Each structure stands twice: as C-alpha cells, then as structure tokens.
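Key result, reporting period 2: structure in, sequence out.
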C-alpha cells in the first residue's frame, strides 16, 4: 500500500519560473550548468535538480523523433552466427510486434538507408570504388550520407523508370559521389530490356560501356535484397507466367541486382541474364566488401538465402528480420569473414 502511494505521489513543489528559466538556458541557449549557477547565484547541483524537476513537472518535454535505434547485442550475435565482417541491426520501435503496413515499409527502407550511410561513411577509404544498385534503401542511403573520402561511385543496375537521365538510381549515384568529391558513373539505361539484341545495343553505347567497365574495379558495394516476387518485383514482373512457374519450381526465393537465388543460396540461371543491365553474379562475388540491405515483410527468408551463397561480407537489417534469422538454420557455406564491425549509433 505504502509503496503504491509513493509511486503515484506528485513531484515535490518547485519554483516553476526558476526551473523554466534554468531549463531555457540549458536546453535552448546551450549554457553550461556552471554558467547558469553563476547567473542565478545558486550551486550547479541545484541547477541539476531544477533541470530534473523541469522534466518531472512537464515544464520540459523530451520527444525523440527518430523511431529507430541500433541493437548492438543482436548485431554481434548475427555477425558471429553468420561470419559477417559488418552487421548493423536497426530496431524500428514503431514497426515491431505486428505486420508492417505499406507506409511503414517505406520507413523501414528509409532507416535502413540511414544506417547504411553511416556504415559506408565509416568504412570507405580514399581511392575506393563504391557500387550502388537501384533499390529503395540504397536511394535512402544516398539521401542520408554525409562526407565521404574521395572515391568513385558506380551504378550497378539500370534504371527502373522511364526517365533515363534523371531516374532516382542515377540521382543516388550522383549524390553519393558528390559527398566524396569523386566521379559518378551512372547508367542511363533501362534495367530490363525487351530482348537480348536491344540490351546489347544499349551496352555498346560509349557512356554505358564506360560504366560497365568499372564493375570489375568496385571495392565496396551496397545492394538491396528482396523476396523474388515482392512488390514491386521488377524481375518477377518481367517474366511470363510459364517462366515464373519454372523458377518457382526451382525454389527461387531471393533477388539481388536482377539475379535469383534459391533457399540454398544457389544462383539460378535465367533467360533474363542477356536482357538485364547489371553486374553479373560472378562480379558480385568478386566485390571485396558487399553489403546487403534487407528489411520488412518476407525479407528474412530472402536474406538467409543470400547469406548461404557466401556473397555477403556485411548486412544492414531491421530487428524483426534479425531475430527471424537467429531462429533459422545457419548457412551451409562459410561466408567471407573478418573481425566484425557492429554499429552502435545511427545518425
């Protein structure tokens, strides 16, 4: 009984005008507690008590507007489980515990991109060649990235929209290159062409060929990982019903840069290879540091498949996906591994 009354007791009386004045100087004017104490002729300990009282009496309201934080222990567990060099897990507090609505799906991509931008800012070195695909989280990365060491930035997949000059994938490459003061290598070509001869014609264009020639020089890359029939699923949508049934029978479950993977991590040969403007599966494997971004509904199965392929050196994912991965069977193959980097903050 006594403990219950103590929990509900109102805060002790306080001089609200003094508390508000102290709080204004500390929170809005960035004055130190020592300077505030001198101004009001009180001790710095009383300043600290007044600041606490300002929160307790609702004079000051603290609102954290970022609905995400980094889950360090979960990131460490996954890095150890899957042998990853880089592992960032974003806890999206507003999306946990239930289905993710379409609007929340966009938020998932936004915060994954922000976390990936921080990771890339920390691991990129001068002279790197950074590759970016055209996925939504990678677009969000380009919007969140700050300063980078001087590096070139290469677009790894063709564009998905009709505007070949100003597509979001092209803009993302340009923004990221500007952050490092390096050169951008965009692809002003569609991602999927109607047939192989048309794709070959686009590849032969000098500007496109120049970008394609950079694929073998990429040292770090960021790619989105999705279920192969997710919405929007550009590869899936480009297939006939007969082709979809065929790849479904082969166990297709994940798509990365236009390449399909089965649950065991095997790359499935597709008739689309000659029609897609993208780096090849072998070129993906040759990238020294390949970071995969995955989050939202159905991403765990897709990410697990790509982890089993051994392509990835790092991942950025939401915590729901991370927990599902920890409950799953581990990879059959040994991924590329080094001392793990686990992010502790998102900015």
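The corresponding designed sequence is given below.
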């Amino acid at each position: 009984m006594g403990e219950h009354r103590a929990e509900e007791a109102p805060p002790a009386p306080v001089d609200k005008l003094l508390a508000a004045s102290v709080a204004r100087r500390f929170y809005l004017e960035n004055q130190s507690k020592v300077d505030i104490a001198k101004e009001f002729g009180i001790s710095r300990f009383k300043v600290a008590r007044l600041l606490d009282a300002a929160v307790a009496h609702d004079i000051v309201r603290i609102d954290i507007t970022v609905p995400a934080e980094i889950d360090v222990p979960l990131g460490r567990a996954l890095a150890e489980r899957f042998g990853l060099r880089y592992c960032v897990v974003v806890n999206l507090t507003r999306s946990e515990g239930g289905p993710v609505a379409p609007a929340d799906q966009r938020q998932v991509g936004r915060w994954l991109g922000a976390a990936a931008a921080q990771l890339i800012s920390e691991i990129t070195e001068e002279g790197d060649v950074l590759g970016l695909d055209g996925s939504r989280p990678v677009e969000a990365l380009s919007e969140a990235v700050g300063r980078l060491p001087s590096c070139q930035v290469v677009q790894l997949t063709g564009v998905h929209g009709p505007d070949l000059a100003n597509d979001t994938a092209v803009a993302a490459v340009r923004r990221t290159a500007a952050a490092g003061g390096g050169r951008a290598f965009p692809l002003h070509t569609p991602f999927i062409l109607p047939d192989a001869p048309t794709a070959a014609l686009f590849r032969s264009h000098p500007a496109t060929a120049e970008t394609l020639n950079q694929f073998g020089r990429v040292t770090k890359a960021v790619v989105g990982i999705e279920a192969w029939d997710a919405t929007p699923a550009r590869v899936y949508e480009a297939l006939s019903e007969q082709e979809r049934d065929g790849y479904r029978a082969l166990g297709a479950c994940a798509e990365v840069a236009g390449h399909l993977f089965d649950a065991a991590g095997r790359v499935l040969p597709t008739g689309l290879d000659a029609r897609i403007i993208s780096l090849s599966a072998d070129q993906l494997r040759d990238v020294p540091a390949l970071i995969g971004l995955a989050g939202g509904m159905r991403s765990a199965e897709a990410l697990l498949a790509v982890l089993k392929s051994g392509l990835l050196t790092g991942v950025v994912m939401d915590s729901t996906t991370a927990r599902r991965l920890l409950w799953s069977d581990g990879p059959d193959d040994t991924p590329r591994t080094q001392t793990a980097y686990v992010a502790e903050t998102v900015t």
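The first helix runs from residue 2 to 8. The two ends are 45 Å apart (CA to CA). This case is discussed further under Risks and Mitigation.
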